[in-house]
Write a structure and sequence with these properties.
By secondary structure, this protein is an all-alpha fold. The protein folds into three domains: 1-132, no CATH class; 147-214; 220-318, no CATH class. 80% of the residues lie in helices and 0% in strands. The chain is built from 14 helices and no strands. The protein has helices at residues 2-31, 39-50, 60-81, 83-87, 89-108, 121-132, 134-142, 150-180, 186-214, 217-228, 230-247, 257-283, 288-291, 296-317. Helix 1 (2-31) crosses helix 2 and helix 8 (150-180) crosses helix 9.
Length: 318
């Protein structure tokens, strides 16, 4: 299982990461007029970017995922070996993550710490804890609201309330910093980002099961398709965003039009990426080399088309 796990990750995650990093890095050099200059320096800089996940703004996330795949067998073995460790997994994850945050702030001073897996250890451990106890968690997630106990309803209200409060404070902190230039200690930004995103993950987990139970079938089918294609969409969406920003470069951030421009970018990048990925997987052979694994839903339809084409060719030959 471990061998198969790594073979698939090398094939469907690492290979697309390397190729997409190469493409974005070359595009950045081209835009800056540096593509044909200092080939040796560019090559050296590219290798540094690949091993730090910084070839383009969004690729740090794929780089973090690769680090997680390397850590996964170790974490799995540790959690399987000790019930006590499972019980303390989440506090331990927070302690190690925040230990690194303090260490980096006062001694290491690593600028690209967001590309290091230890910056997300609390999330890994929370995910592992939920996965280990998922049989119990799923019962709660699958229960309709009217069947929830008073205590369960109370905890849901507390979770959503804390999430909204954390989101509001986090946004306000950044608004004051960006708009008025009033900055505070970096640890506050770290803390609010950590709390806001952890609570967001839990709220979204609950919301996903709520949507699965209550939403129309077409909406569920669309969201499922979006989820299946999410890795490929994530890889290419900044390219569409860059094009969209170029088209709207003359719009003033002070105007109301800018608000519509921002939401237009969301629709353009998400919808355009989804469409491109769909066409690529359906029409371009070996597109998985750049976009990752073909979703099962498309894989089955492609297989059916291949079988149909073979049958038609057989009839023609006969």
């Amino acid at each position: 299982m471990i061998i198969n796990f790594y073979r698939r990750r090398l094939k469907y995650i690492l290979l697309p990461y390397l190729l997409v990093s190469m493409g974005y890095y070359a595009l950045t050099l081209y835009v800056n007029g540096q593509l044909t200059q200092n080939f040796g320096d560019n090559l050296s800089s590219f290798f540094r970017a690949v091993v730090t996940g910084s070839a383009y703004a969004h690729l740090y996330f794929v780089f973090i995922s690769i680090q997680f795949y390397l850590l996964f067998p170790v974490l799995l073995k540790l959690l399987q070996s000790s019930r006590l460790l499972v019980r303390w997994a989440v506090p331990l994850g927070f302690a190690l993550q925040w230990g690194f945050i303090f260490w980096n702030k006062y001694e290491l001073h690593i600028v690209e710490k967001g590309s290091l897996a230890i910056s997300y250890l609390a999330y890994y451990m929370l995910g592992a804890f939920i996965a280990i106890h998922f049989d119990k968690v799923k019962i709660w997630l699958m229960k309709p609201w009217r069947e929830q106990s008073a205590a369960q309803k109370g905890w849901i209200r507390v979770l959503v309330s804390l999430w909204l409060i954390a989101a509001f404070i986090h946004v306000q902190l950044w608004y004051v910093a960006r708009h008025y230039g009033v900055w505070t200690d970096s640890l506050w930004y770290e803390l609010l980002w950590n709390v806001h995103t952890i609570l967001s993950a839990l709220v979204l987990l609950y919301a996903a099961f709520l949507i699965q139970r209550r939403a129309p079938r077409r909406m569920i089918a669309f969201l499922t398709s979006l989820g299946e294609l999410s890795f490929a969409i994530y890889l290419i969406h900044p390219l569409l965003l860059a094009i969209f920003r170029k088209l709207g470069s003359s719009i003033s951030p002070e105007s109301l039009t800018y608000v519509f421009f921002i939401y237009g970018g969301l629709v353009f990048a998400l919808g355009g990426s989804w469409l491109i990925v769909q066409i690529a997987f359906r029409r371009i052979p070996k597109s998985w080399i750049i976009l990752g694994s073909v979703p099962r839903s498309l894989e089955s339809s492609l297989r059916a088309k291949s079988v149909h084409a073979s049958n038609e060719m057989g009839k023609f030959n006969t």
